[in-house]
Each structure stands twice: as structure tokens, then as C-alpha cells.
Amino acid sequence: MTKNLVTILVVLIFSSCSKKEPVYEPTSKSEGYAIYQEAFEALEKGDLFFAQKKFTEAELQFDTYEHASKAAVMATYCLYGINFYEDAIANIERFQKKYPADYNIIYIHYLKAIIYFEQISDEKKDIEPLLKALNEIEFFLKEYPESDYAIDLQFKKDLAINQLAAKELFIAKYYISVKKWIPAINRLKKIVREYDKTIFIEEALHRLVEIHYFIGLEEESKKYAKILGYNYNSSEWFQQSYKILNKDYQIPKIKKINNKDSFLKKIIKKIK
Fold first, then answer.
1. Where in the chain is the domain with CATH 1.25.40.10?
2. For the segment 137-178, what is each residue's pLDDT rounded down to a tens digit?
3. Does the pLDDT at position 264 exceed 60?
4. Alpha helices in the chain (DSSP H)
5. 5-119 falls under which CATH superfamily?
6. Does domain 167-271 have CATH number 1.10.1760?
7. DSSP for residue 104
């Protein structure tokens, strides 16, 4: 199954590896050892579906907490690897209850955040996975700030916050297109208030300049133009806002949004 476009682009462009595979080899010749070895060999061959079944079987056969928990981690990783996200989350939650003090609990929390992150779609669709991803990422960064996974999750948090801003801007543009000025203003102000570190702040300020001028609140329009000019005076959005003081200015029609023009592409263009 093809991985989510967000993950593919992040890996290719920013060299941020999401699938950090745990590697374990039990040293005990317990009853589950042969099963575990069979699972591990299947994993190395890329047969994650079979490997997951065998790791789960090995967990039940191991007579030590340490080896059973390792098998459980490996089974969960395999579920993630074949995109069985719901099953992987169920495994993670079971692991958290059954092995709360296990060393691998850090990796399990990381994997949970990654799974939700990889289900993030574009700004025009459901944001529930996005909110869940942010919740898990923020929990991880608070509890394990020194972890090897923290840098990766901080980067993904920044992407997720940009996505939230993109969602607000998308909705604001819709309201502009149907001339619902107050809801549009509220959405844009939310970007200015809560997402001022994102790449969408400049356009949000410009749209506030634009709308306030059009509805006759010229002083409010000038206020946002000054904020835009002070902070982003080389921005193309400031240049457009500057033209708004022309009395003949009319709000242009919002262009139909290209489904392929995702927020991540905008970020990539910004970085370039």
C-alpha cells in the first residue's frame, strides 16, 4: 500500500525518517525464541504481514516480561509498516496498559504520534487525525524532550500547525468568495492570533486589509497594512495590500483551489 504523500515528501525532501525500525534479538532460548526468529526472518524479507502474526504469537509464548514486550513492539511496528493503522493503534494502547514501565514505551509513544501524523490529509478534509497527531506529539515533547525522536516530532509539529493555519485560511477564502465578511474576518484573525509563525500569516494579514477596506473600515484596513508592512515589507502580499488604498480597488475573485496545491508544497516553495 502506498504511503501517505505527506510522509513521502518529508522523507525525500527533508531526509526525516519516520519508519525507525526497532531491532531486537532475544538472547533467551525460551519457548517463544524459535517463533520470534521466524518472525524476524520474515521481517527482513519484507513479509511484514506474516512477521506480525509470528511476533504476536511469540509474545504469548515468551515467559519473560522483557522478551514478551519486545515481541509486542515488533508486532506493532509490522502493523504500522503495512498501514494497518487502526490495528497498530489498538496494539499501542494495549502495550501502554500491559507494559507501562517497559524501556520501549518511548518508542511506542513516538510510533503513535507518527501513525496519526501519516493520516493527515490536506486542508480541505477532516482534521481529526491532525488534532490527534498534535496531541500525541505535544505529549511526547513534554514527557521526553531529550529523546532521539524529539527533533523529528518537533519538525512534524511545525508542519501540523501550518496545516491548521491552512485549514483556517481555506475556510476564510470560502467565506470571502460568498461575501460572508464577518466569518471570514474571524477566521483570519485566528491565524494572526494563533498561527503567526506559519507561512500563512502574510496572506491572512493581506486578506484582513482587503476585507476591511472593501466594507468601509479604512482605519482597520490601514492597521493591518502597517502590521504587514512592518513585519513583511518585502512580501508580495504587502505589495498587494499597498495597492488597496486605490479607491477603485475591488476584491478579486478567489481562484479555484488546485487540489494538488497542498500546504506542504507551499512550505517547500517557501524553503526554496
1. 5-119
2. 999 999 999 999 999 999 999 999 999 999 999 999 999 999
3. no
4. 5-14, 33-44, 48-61, 65-81, 85-98, 105-117, 128-143, 150-177, 181-194, 201-214, 218-231, 236-243, 263-271
5. Tetratricopeptide repeat domain (1.25.40.10)
6. no
7. T
